[in-house]
Amino acid sequence: MGIFYGILSWTALFLLFMVLIAFLGFCLYIKYIHMAYDYIPGPPRDNFLLGHVPTFLKALKNDDVIHDKFKEWCETHGSVCRINFLHHVIVLVTCPEGIKEILMSPKYPKDDAYKKIGNLFGVRFLGNGLITAQDHEQWYKQRRIMDPAFSSLYLRGLMDAFNERAEKLMLKLTDVADNQTEASMLKLMNFVTLDVIAKVAFGVDLDHMKDKSVFTKAIALTLKGMIYQIRDIFFKFHPKNQPFIKEVNEACRMLRATGAQWINERKAAMRNGEDVPKDILTQIIRTAGKEGSMTSEDEELMLDNFVTFFIAGQETTANQLAFCILELTRHPEILEKAKIEVDDVIGMKQMISYEDLGKLIYVSQLLKETLRIYPTAPGTTRMLPEDTIIDGINLPKGFVCFFSSYATGRMEKFFKDPMTFDPDRFHPDAPKPYYCYFPFALGPRACLGQNFAQMEAKLIMAKLIQRFDFTLSPGQSFDILDNGTLRPKSGVVCSVRHRNHNN
After folding, report:
1. Which of 64, 88, 100, 362 has the most neighbouring CB atoms within 10 Å?
2. Which positions bind heme (predicted)?
3. Is position 436 annotated in a ligand binding site?
4. Whole-angstrom distance between the N-terminal and C-terminal Cα of the chain?
């Protein structure tokens, strides 16, 4: 028995020795990374091993916007700024020439971080869809299938559906105004954009659902889970987080099951020769059919893109509209200019045409300025396939560059008085921002749904300005909640009144 315990003791000592050797090796490797790349300017590390991870964790814990820290670092340390994430080095780039070079070129792929949102805690989420695909050929095939459905020519034929869904919101706000009550504009914007994406893209009328908030809750859960998975590498190992992870996984499965049901029902209807809506889903299925036989992976990719469009088409536009309303409540002079334009272009008519949208120049400026200060999808990354020089600093092959539209949009060097809400920055005759404004990203991997989002936001905002006045309720703040997308933290609770058109 003594020999047995002796062997166990030696085994334990040997294992401990090996662990210590491995830890020492990791420390030496971290030291090598520091020595090799500390020539790139950057803030002091929080921790030798963890680098700047504690800053990310603190931001998560305090509900801070991490992009504020990015802006601070870039203003202090320059347009190419190093961040240490354990043994990885990420570079913040706010140099317009660097942004142009990398985002506008197809040769810079998305990095491995996008794999982390392909699956959330082991359950497929965005998979290998348009946002997450790293392989160029796989991405290009998907984009080729999706492009026709999101062209301006195709979307203009869906204006009736856009108007119909927006009118549902107007009826709800009419009740709020008639009863002189308050409403969370963020919540209402979430519901209307959910209605729009479901109807315009997938031909589904959510009014028939008993509780359509199940979708908004699932979207919020998955986005929050996405942020924890990306920014907190230890999150999934903590026992107290398991109930939340289970909720996130169930939300992922629900969204994908919904997509599979809607897609399969539409395919069956098309095979049977039934009349089907002339919406985005029909166009995508028809275009995909021209590509030849669909493999099981192609079917999964279509489902990946369903989840992508369902979330992006609802969440980001809702947040943009809510932020715009928030700013208009404290800028009556800007609101008055918007009212004059809306009254001139659409008067009191309910159905807004595609041609009307083109004439709403100032409303477009409003929405662009909103995205400058509050880019609802605030950043993107790319990987360097070869050594690259940006702003005089050599960045080695394999480095990941991060681009924050939030940071550049709020920097004095690019926008005078950046925290002043001024739609005239985007007047047609004003100088165009030079690669420092990219709320939909730039280049070949720019957001496919940009036309859809801009049409939807402009139409809804025009109807709101046409019919209602909003007063921000006491206690509301202008704070931002960073859940991967940016949203107003307080919900933009307003009292709503009918506009007095006699003034």
Report:
1. 362
2. 447
3. no
4. 98
Report how far apart, in Å, the C-alpha atoms of 434 and of each of 95, 131, 294, 462 are: 10, 24, 42, 28
Max distance between CA atoms of the chain, in angstroms, equals 99
Q: How far apart are CA 439 and CA 437, in angstroms?
A: 6
Identify the CATH number of the domain in which residue 236 sits: 1.10.630.10
What is the residue range of 455's domain?
38-498
Q: Indicate whether 7 belongs to any domain.
A: no
230 phi and psi, to 5 degrees?
Answer: -75, -45
Question: For the residues of 405-472, what is the DSSP string, one character each?
Answer: HHHHHT-TTTSSSTTS--GGGG-TTSPPP-SS--TT--GGGS-TTHHHHHHHHHHHHHHHHHHEEEEE
Strand partners, 496: 470
Which residues share a beta bridge with 168?
Answer: none
Q: Residue 89 falls within a domain, yes or no?
A: yes
What does the pLDDT look like over 130-153, one tens digit per residue? 888 888 888 888 888 888 888 888
Tell me whether residue 24 is in a domain.
Answer: no
pTM: 0.90
Q: Do residues 203 and 277 lie in contact, with contact meaning Cβ atoms separated by under 8 Å?
A: yes
Tokens of 228: 């924890």
- Please give the pLDDT value at position 212: 66
* Total domains present in the chain: 1
